[in-house]
Amino acid sequence: MKDARAFRTGAALALAGLALATAACGDSSVPVERLVDARLPTDVAGGTLADTAPPGNALTEARAQLGKRLFFDGRLSRTGLVSCSTCHAQANAFSDPAPVSTGVDGRVGTRNAPALVNLAWGTSFFWDGRVTSLEEQAGKPIENPLEMDSPLADVVTRVGGDASYARAFAGVYDDGLTTETLRFALASFVRTLVSGGSPYDRHLAGDDTTFDDAAARGEKLFLSERAACFHCHSPGSLTNGGYFNDGSFVAGGDPGRQAITGRAGDLGKFKVPGLRNVAASAPYMHDGSLATLEEVVDQYDRGGRGDPSTDPQIRPLGLTAGEKADLLALLRSFTDDAFLTDGRYQP
After folding, report:
1. Comparing C-alpha atoms, which of 300, 311, 303 is closest to residue 265?
2. For residue range 310-322, what is the model confidence (pLDDT) as tens digits?
3. pLDDT in tens, 16-34
4. Distance from the CA of 176 to the CA of which of 121, 240, 264, 337 falls in 20 to 30 A?
5. Which domain holds residue 85?
6. pLDDT score of 44 more than 90
7. CB-based contact 118:278 (threshold 8 Å)
8. Same domain as 207, residue 83
9. With bands split at pLDDT 50, 70 and 90, how would you rate the model's confidence at 45?
10. Among 272, 237, 275, which Cα is nearest to 257's?
11. Using CA of residue 41, residue 43, residue 48, residue 51, what is the dihedral sign?
């Protein structure tokens, strides 16, 4: 797929990725590698990363660097001990390796922390899709009593007591540090978490050097009506961005999307996650109830957990051991090792 949808590599990426920018926070004399560059995942037809930002929060290097500093700062929580990075670890594709996350005072959440990958192109967020922008999303974990448990106004007071933060916000937002610009800066950093260098991405760009025969067989099965994975996990983006009862719901469990819409037909529906770096983001499903990719494949092969609300497309597949192995090979080909170790995303 040697067209504009292919991941942008080569000289443009190398120059952009290695260019130095001045940090927007702390010691402004310290050079850092740019977060905002020419990267695009394979599902994007054109434009730039900056084009994904809303008009009121234009994506700039300084704003992204400021958001990165906030992402790792425990002062966003009431106790000062929980940061965004506590539940979103880079090695796990910015997800949590625990089934559900632990917030302030040891409080336990109710859903698995999703991976923060290519959200710049997302149109709704959280498992139930209750917000439609990264700017709105950024404030919710801070205020959630099970997570960071802090009113945004209190965070502004704590963070604003640091003169370097006050200067940085004044330099990138006309209003300086406010509850709104706090959210905007965090969203700017999350917008730069772009993954598109996996063996699968290189395969889509026409390079099969690291895309082995098992992954190729898995892709054929993935795109066939026999497994029918592609109906929800579209090629390229690996998600259709919709909501689906995939067979994980059981009676009396988390109602998912229904809690937002109130519609009976939305019972047990959750946002279809993207599969990029899925091998690094265990455990799986909205509740973190499946520990391995093997368990995920087995559950789909069985047709879910048996609740009658399960979407009729989820049905027993009768996959052979070889077919399961091929699907697993494909899923592992979605791993972008460079993304998982990129120093630009580290404090």
Report:
1. 311
2. 999 999 999 999 9
3. 333 333 444 444 444 568 9
4. 121
5. 50-194
6. no
7. no
8. no
9. confident
10. 272
11. negative
Burial 199-230 (b: 16+ CB within 10 A, else e): bbbbbbbeeeeebbebbbbbbebbeeeebbbe
pTM above 0.70, yes or no: yes
Residues 294 and 273 in one domain: yes
Tokens of 7: 């991941």
Cα-only R_g, the chain: 20
Tell me what percent of the chain is helix, strand and coil, each rounded to the nearest 5.
Answer: 40, 5, 55
Chain Cα centroid distance, residue 339: 12
Give the CATH number of the domain where residue 84 resides: 1.10.760.10
Q: Are 118 and 244 members of one domain?
A: no
Q: Among residues 150, 153, 184, which one has the least CA distance to residue 168?
A: 184
Instruction: Indicate if 243 and 122 belong to the same structural domain.
Output: no
Average pLDDT of the segment spanning 94-114: 98
Higher pLDDT, 26 or 294: 294
- The per-residue pLDDT for 1 is 41
203 and 184 both lie in a single domain? no
